[in-house]
């Protein structure tokens, strides 16, 4: 008479466990896909906005309090700090050319010599790595923009 070997019972047990796992996965996904959409629970109310006293924060960070009745002066923005020269295409013999300039941190745009950058400011000339802005095409230069030095 032939008796089954212990190894065959291991194979049968492993097969049964795999089929049981497959049936469990099928039941899980069947229930998950068969149900309606999930409804999210409402979020709890967050912290409320609190009024902040700038003078108190300034004292906390080591600032010196201003004299009473004296308003702090607004920072003065220089004309040159509003513009950034990104690129230059200068005509060597024609005196013409174009400059790529970013105004107030906006994306840079190309401007030809003589074109208006903003009301009251014109691109007067471009040379090498420099662009000159003036209030009028033949007027005195108001701002000179230069490209940063080239690094390898």
TrEMBL record:
Location, primary (coarse class): membrane
Keywords: Cell inner membrane, Cell membrane, Membrane, Protein transport, Transmembrane, Transmembrane helix, Transport
Type II secretion system protein GspC N-terminal domain segment(s): 72-134
Subcellular compartments: Cell inner membrane
InterPro entries to which the protein is assigned, alphabetical: T2SS_GspC_N (IPR024961)
Source organism of this protein record: Ramlibacter terrae
Protein name per its UniProtKB record: General secretion pathway protein C
